[in-house]
Automatic annotation (TrEMBL):
5'-3' exonuclease acting preferentially on double-stranded DNA. One of its GO terms (biological process) is DNA replication, Okazaki fragment processing. This is 5'-3' exonuclease. PANTHER family: 5'-3' EXONUCLEASE FAMILY PROTEIN (PTHR42646:SF2), FLAP ENDONUCLEASE XNI (PTHR42646). The lineage of its organism: Bacteria, Bacillati, Actinomycetota, Actinomycetes, Micromonosporales.
Amino acid sequence: MAHRPPILLIDSASLYFRAYFGIPESAARAEDGTPVNAVRGFLDMLATLIRVRGADRMICALDYDWRPAWRVDLLPSYKAHRVAPQGGEIVPDTLSPQVPMILEVLTAVGITAVGATGYEADDVLGTLSVTQPGPVEVVSGDRDLFQLVDDARPVRLLYVGRGVAKLDDCDDAAVRARYGVPADRYADFAALRGDPSDGLPGVAGVGDKTAARLIERYGSIAGILAALDDSDSSFAPGLRAKLVAARDYLGVAPTVVRVALDVPLPELPTALPSAPADPDRLLELAQRWNLAGSARRLVDALAAPRGGEKPSTSPQAG
């Protein structure tokens, strides 16, 4: 049976933030001086991914709500440190205007981009990962998405922590090797350990190794909380005290950390075009924003035969 090419599910913000900080503004400007470094870098990343993964389908997921109220209601510290004084997320002034540019180019090329009110891009990616025909490859630098890895479907995480040119192609064995837990327990592991970048305090004094041992022994946070109520459970006294002190947090953190898999999404076109959907519009945008090289590389990647070439990748996230 012929190997089916994968669908690439793109964590758009993860890639365009990486592009923005990876390419100097001075090296990528439109004729009027407008920075386009994030746009160029993002388009080049897509071209590389299409070429080396042999994908024939793609969806770019968007953050319609980067800090959903239902998560904040459960855990007020969630991403609180990233809220701008005037509200909204802290985003570099010269990046914000580039996001609509990226969306305009995607529309002209014919690549689907989708978000959902009240949900983060992670939730959109999670829902697509369980509803789109596999194989599925999720592309992100967000560790939270290790929880989506599922060898049975299969769903893999192409972790871009070291950049798109050095993808870490992660299956369940890779998650186990790095964190000591299976992918389907990663969310509980992350809640125990905490993540300052997302405002998750974790349990005081519990790091990766202790979190992994707790998950291995008790299976989940629910299992840990049940064991705390069992006088025969054999927690070390210091660890028991820390877990008891964090009981309220542990009661809500798994729901905050777990990616939603049931986001209401419309039927979406997923097939990658072999040529731009609106070539005249793409040419206009490329000329206006000085994107000719990046646009050409993306168009060439779309026109090339797909389904065979795969890059050499690390077996786990670095």
